[in-house]
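User: Hi! I'm working on a homework problem where we have to compare a predicted structure to a textbook description. Could you give me the structure for the chain below?
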Amino acid sequence: MTSLFLITGATGKTGAGAATTLLEHGHRVRTLVHRTDERSDRLAVAGAEIVVGDMLDLDAVVQVTTGVDGVYFAYPIRPGLMEASAIMLQAAEENRVGALVNMSQISARRDAVSNSARQHWIAERMLDHFSGAVTHIRPTFFAEWLLTFWDPKSGELRLPFAKAHHAPIAGEDQGRVIAALLEDPQRHAGMTYPLYGPTELDHYQMAEIMTQALGRQITYVPIEIDEFRSQLERRGMGVHQIQHLTNVAVDYRNGIFAGTSDVVRTLTGRDPLTVAAFVERNKQYFDEPAN
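Assistant: Happy to help. Predicted structure tokens:
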């Protein structure tokens, strides 16, 4: 049966994958984007309805959720998550939306030092009051981090993760999971799913995989948190994002991001991408650091 789904953050890594998968499955997709660009243009060509709006604008969110069967709710790492969650909950209730899939994070917990991680935990508890089916997903670090933090000039990955490890998960795999949850919401109502890639690796191992795939030497250089903070400041990141990323770096060292599971295969019928497959698939994007 064809449904209408709203995808927020549709030009991002997970939202684009969810929208594309749902369109391929014959559903109607409405997207809420902050602005139009080449990414939203690609979704429009694929058949998505593009709506420009602000998730902190109650009237806009009520309007965009009208007639929608299910919503993927994803808010970026910036101030406003609590307000955006409350607005989405109110809009979904007013419009009797049937399902919400909420993007949280693996480090979300009551006692998190990261403001963003703690707010995600509180937002989960808020959205648990939704009268429809709500499902939370908690991914570990994305495979796309390798694009974001690789320096193409030096061939270095300078990150504060010591020898700790995680199983990177690609945005496209998460998009397929999100689509599966929206298509069968009652089966997953009340669930919280941690999302991982197939294999736990430390960044020395990831650098070696990148070396093989890209045909040039890639080196992981472990750094301290203060250097990482300075790196983020030079990139122009805001105070909220820097506070989050420096504190989850500590979480990472403490094993919070570690683990594996079969959730992706169970929900989608396909194994998640390995790091080698991700790098091979995205070779063209390693020419320049991601924005």
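For your comparison, note the following. Residues 239-253 form the longest helix (15 residues). The radius of gyration is 19 Å. Good luck with the assignment!
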